[in-house]
Amino acid sequence: MCLERLIYHNNPLSRACIAAVEYAMSRERTQAAKLLDDMEDARLERKQDMKERELARKIKAAADEGGEELRDKKTAEVLEPGVKIWIPVSFGRNNNVLGKIEVDSATTLMDARININKWGDLGDEWVFLSVNDGQEIGEGEEGKRQIIWDCGRQVLLRPKNWIEL
What is the full DSSP assignment across 18-63? Predict the structure, then answer.
């Protein structure tokens, strides 16, 4: 985060200029550096807060679509056995809803992938995102994980070559 060493080679600097630079580098971090650290911490807090608000919005939207029986359920709860719901499937940066799939508590990501592939629009170049940490779920894990538990009440898909900024 700060410059520790300078190599002077073929630079037309005077001895006084070199002495001034070395003096500046030998000092402890200034208040400006502390201010930059605080700004970075605040940015990370805002980013986390935005993720939490987005998750709350998605939960509310899914509960509104699912009716009264889903309003009281928490995010991490799995549906009761035998109960089926329709959940939206989104793709891309703006979470454009491509359609809905019907799932129950035992529907795996692999089952959902088969249903989504039937639409024919995406091909095989996409991944599921985890509702818990926003990270992609590998295809090797898809047979072991449930769609509601791991992807929530709205399934988010991203291209395999997605780069998070």
Answer: HHHHHHHHHSPP-HHHHHHHHHHHHHHHHHHHHHHHHHHHHHHHHH
Structure tokens at 126: 């996409």
Please give the tally of structural domains in the chain: 1
Residue 15 placed within a domain: no
- Is residue 74 in a domain? yes
- Integer-rounded Cα radius of gyration of the chain: 25
Determine the straight-line distance between the first and last CA of the chain, rounded to whole angstroms: 20
What are the tens digits of pLDDT across the range 71-121? 444 444 556 777 888 989 988 777 788 889 999 888 999 999 888 888 777
CA distance 42 to 141: 35
